[in-house]
Amino acid sequence: MYLNRMRDVTGTLAFRMTAWYAVVFTACSMLALSIFYYKISVITLKASDSELVEEIEEFVTIMDEGGLERVKKYMTVEVQSEEEDIFFRLFSPDGRLIAMEGKPFWNHVDPSENIFESLRHEVKPVLSTLELPDYKFKVRTIYGKISPEMILQVGISLEENEKYLKIFRRLLLLLILPLFLVSAVIGWLLARQGLKGVEEVTLTAMDITKGAYDKRVQVKKRLLEVSRLANTFNAMLDRIQALFKGMSEVTDNVAHDLRSPLTRIRGIAEMTLMGKSSIADYEKMAASTIEECDNLIHLINTMLDITETEAGVGRFEKEALDLKKLLTDACDLFQPVADEKGIQLLTRLPDELAVRSDKGRLQRMVTNLLENAIKYTDPGGKVTVSAYKKNGQVHIGFTDTGMGISETDLPKIFDRFYRCDNSRTQPGTGLGLCLVKAIANAFGGDIRVTSKLNEGSTFSVSLPL
Ligand code: ADP
Question: Looking at ligand 1, which atom is closest to the CA of residue 423?
């Protein structure tokens, strides 16, 4: 259990960001401090070196002014007076020891043959760092000519330098942990701040899972990525909710629209069974049942067509079509119905109207709109079908002088199953316009309607060529 919780924590983005931040920050700080340490060690060594060079220069003057005896005397004075450990040795140019002053551990400093060799050709003093067996600090020595026949070696202890550097090294080691802890806290605060929006998205998603479907993420002024995530998440929720609402409406409507014909079928069958029915009655019942079933099949098929078209399922052919012929054929098909109702069916079409489109779907759209125009127009009225091309689009219009649509109904007529109250005397499912709109949209086009109650309506479809 404890292990699982540990794994949960270490698996979080906040933990990983904090850990990375702390490690990188500490490593960078230690690197910067190490460079600083190195620089300090170089500077302190340089200070010791210039002290040694100064000693040689001083002894050059003493040699010049007082000769060897003065040099020896001065060496003794310096060793006795210096607080630090210092030592002096005088050599002839071939490396023979002439005089020496200093504490016994300095005896371990071996004069190097190479140095005498190089000093024979060069005047520049030679510096080196040494470790002595009986002394715990490093020493720095210099060999320099104080006269053509005299080489002076001066050695000083690096005790002070090493003490300072040791303190610094300890400080570095002591700093690692506090640095790591401070950077971890800063990293954690930064990670928390950055991920606060993500956390809110998660909490909102959890609330929604529990049933709070209206919950949305509060989009505050945050980091751009986080507010974009919150906005996208909210937009997705809105879309899902709209789909959900649409689906439940469809289910309600389908249930309602199926119940009526099924109740009618059941009623007819019950009536026929209850009375003393003749063969003719049974035949009438069968005919009514077939008619109701046809209506149901039509309703279900139209529903499926709408769903398919809206989802973009199924192929949309792009074949060369004579739209003028398609519209004329449709009018010829509906002419008998129009004649029967005493409606004048007119066309206003150009001489030539070639388009590239899906014939089957275009026919479906045209028949639906033409059928509605005739259906919702009273005898003596007029229906006009027109078409023209403009700005890379083809516009098809269906104008009637029928019952018209009220302003309140106008925005809803393309919804599934929506039927205006004044048209309920006419047969219909309320799905035709929804399918027409789905087809127009699938073509990349649109459908608009203008209407005035009791005066008539115009449905205009515009499709890209
Ligand atoms: P329906 O099967 O009822 O005709 P539609 O989806 O084709 O279904 O139309 C939806 C509703 O829009 C109709 O019920 C009707 O009230 C109204 N409507 C459609 N076309 C017209 C029109 N040309 N004139 C008046 N009302 C119309």
Answer: 16
Same domain, 19 and 153: yes
To 10 degrees, the CA torsion angle through 181, 183, 185, 187?
-140
pLDDT tens for residues 122-138?
768 888 888 888 788 88
| Number of Cβ within a 10 Å radius of residue 38 | 10
Do residue 293 and residue 359 come from a single domain?
no
Residue at which a domain ends, from 259, 280, 310: 310
**Helix boundaries (H) for 342-415:** 359-375
- Closest ligand 1 atom to the C-alpha of 368? 7
- The whole-angstrom separation of Cα 278 and Cα 143 is 141
Domain boundary among 310, 335, 367: 310
pLDDT in tens, 68-125: 888 888 888 888 876 668 889 898 888 888 888 887 777 777 777 677 777 777 768 8
Provide the H-helix boundaries in 210-320.
224-274, 279-311
Closest CA to 44 of 169, 196, 161, 174: 161
In a domain, 205, yes or no: no
Q: Which of 429, 386, 420 is nearest to 402 (CA)?
A: 420
Together in a domain, 141 and 230:
no
Tally of structural domains, the chain: 3
| Angstrom distance (rounded) from CA 121 to CA 146 | 15
Residues 366 and 432 in one domain: yes
CA 329 to ligand 1 center in whole angstroms: 22
Phi/psi-derived region of residue 194, left when phi > 0, alpha when psi is between -120 and 50, beta in every other case: alpha
Q: Locate the ligand 1 atom nearest the alpha carbon of residue 402 and give its number.
A: 24
pTM for this entry: 0.56
Return the number of other C-beta atoms located less than 10 Å from residue 306's C-beta: 20
Q: Any residues with Cβ below 6 Å from ligand 1, and which? A: 372-373, 376, 400, 402-405, 413, 418-420, 423, 428-434, 457
Segments forming the whole domain that contains residue 273: 224-310
Residue 396, phi-psi category: left (phi > 0), alpha (psi -120 to 50), beta (remainder): beta
